[in-house]
Prior knowledge:
The chain is α+β, with helices and mostly antiparallel strands.
Amino acid sequence: MPGENLSRDEARERAALLSVDGYDVSLDVRSAVGESQDEPRTFRSVTTIRFRCNEPGASSFADLVAPGVTAVTLNGKDLDPGEVFDGTRIALEDLAAENELVVDARCAYSRTGEGLHRFVDPEDGEVYLYTQYEPADSRRVFAGFEQPDLKAPFRFEVRAPEGWTVWSNGAGELADGVWRFAETRPISTYITCVVAGPYHYVTDSYSRTLPDGSTLEIPLGAMCRKGLAPYFDADDVFLITRQGLDFFHEHFDYPYPFGKYDQAFVPEYNLGAMENPGLVTFREEYIFRGKVTQASYEARANVILHEMAHMWFGDLVTMVWWDDLWLKESFADFMGTFANVGATRFQNAWTTFANRRKAWAYRADQLPSTHPITADIRDLQDAKLNFDGITYAKGASVLKQLVAYVGQDAFLEGARRYFKRNAYGNTRLGDLLSVLAETSGRDMGAWAGKWLQTAGVNSLTPQVLLDGDGRVAELAVLQEAAESHPELRPHRVAIGLYRLEGGDLVRYARAEADVDGPRTVITELAGADAPELVLVNDDDLTYCKIRFDETSLATLRDRLGSLTDPLARALCWSALWNLTRDALLPARDFVGLVLRFASRESDIGVLQMLQAWAESALVNYVAPEGREAAGRLLAEGALRELRQAAPGSEHQLAWARFFASTAADEPGLRLLQDLLSGAAAIDGLDVDQELRWAFLEPLAAHGLADESVLAAELARDDTASGKRHQVRCLAARPSAAVKAQAWAQVVESQALSNALVEATIAGFAQASQRELLAPYAEKYFEVIAGIWADRSIQIGMDVVRGLYPSLQDRPETLAATDAWLTAHADAAPALRRLVLEARDDLARTLRGQECDARAAEAAAG
């Protein structure tokens, strides 16, 4: 059999043959605690599946990834596990019209965040379990038909260690030592869930009067590890939850369909969160152990609302196959921000979306692996890699454009009809487009062809012609596309004209228009006073890269900080960053703009994004000969802003973290040491435990925090979070022996958990250690094929992405990458995609450095 990587064709064949009536899954996880001689440590899983076959006598298979199977029974007949189970699939022959399959298996606990993950808390030795399945890892926990269109009701029961609590999708109760859970509505295998252990659990409730006069009652719960309980602000989590439920009930007109609503914050999580109905799981980093800015709270609220939107988009109505992953992820990403602005205190969430989420989309859409929002997903490896900036952020951006195109009322009415017609079913693109065509009266097929079924991002540039009186004679918008993806799209955009008034750069004219084709004249702005800045896509209605005419770019160079509107400012910053990445603006110019104007940024999320971009510009796009001086200027500027920021403010905290990440000379590093020891202080700056680790990493990377210092800090913070920080700092030290050890731990061993693999890789690749890391460029290309073959896909992705020698930013590294791609033409497409993406980033780095070097030479005369 082909094995673990289920193809789309196989899934289609199986869906045409089978329909599933229900699952009973019994898990015994008492083996999670205590000593174990098993390798890997296993638990018992007994699954009963009732299903029908519309071609009696036909053959099919069930999915199961497990170390062993004890018994298989099909329709009362015992089958030989050794004959029917190959490690990933159970062969099913001579099926009846109605069937019952019983599989008794030994499944393995996970240390990679896939399947049933087992975590031992170093702080108190407690064991915590949770499941994570998307796209296809429920088969690591129970036998099943692992594809989204074979939905069924599930009944779970779990035997757990004494004193534990167990949660699943449905409400549960403990009787005779067994946790039994209410049967679910029909759902896909990948959104079933179990969480078990001595979690700290807090409860609340939600109620709403429905249009028919009945009352909807939803029990709410939230949980985390006991060690995080002192930091757990469950009240704020519940506040956002209730606000979100109100918002979605008001707009969707379909009551929340899954009973209770638990939210579990779990350790060593690979994702941001997962939309399991009735039991959403989140990475526990959303519980903040130290002071964070409001941007972190906004991000958490966005994720809570994103996952809640999935209860309708994805759980109630699910795509047939991963080609239409956008039907859930794009909508949830859009709805997260839409609800954040509409229901919570985070009224500027669209500014964050424009600045952060779209930056992710723009990068992904310019990679060689870019794809249409409705993608061609051949198999599960393709599906895993398509949880990307296209499916999430570009898809959400396009939906924002769709709302502008059809109108918000028509869009929401379309969603309501979509839910009611397809509840508990599976859909494709056409199912959604048909209802939107009904409610809007617009040609959705043409719109979808342009926006959903083609790849690439367009650039929009203003062209201004003035008359003899200094007024606008004609204003046009030029649209361009890359040669590789030449599609020009229809854009509903706002064009803003700005000028200086009393020292402020303000908008004095605006027009909203449809831009289509290579050149569109905006007649509404003819006759306006001459602008100092033209902002195409003002208010961020469409998805595009904004370009500037010469006058506008000159204005931004001189007056960016005078732009009063936060969203307009964020759009300009994003456009300038895209110019830098496209080698159209020298990197040192971008760094200079950040140094001049970032201090005037009122939106903390935008400020933190600017800091991240400035650091990326320094590491990647500044010419090598200019790095040291540019880095020194950036660190000096960060320290200056840190000292000038309001004491105790979130801006002060942001500048403190940025200063730590840029400090590289002796005075700056000494100040970090003094802040840690208490020999120095900055008024209002609380150097809490999380900030201590942020200060320690650059000290470790520059040889000023050795193993004993890091061990002492771990003793101060002997927690799971502390351990991750220590591991990262240990790998950051500037020693050949340290780098060899870190490489061996990640590449040559499987002893580390997913979280510690991630931490080791993060510490290993230090921008200040290019020469030290040079020997690993060749080694990387020697090992990645084996890594991909031997590890889980999650660890494979982490290693292939994280250890790519991007810091060896020379043409020779590009040539070595090309040589590997040529020699491995038959490698797994998903692996080749990761390498191609890394190659593209490196090529962009080299172009950016060339641009920066040319500008420096020209400036020098």
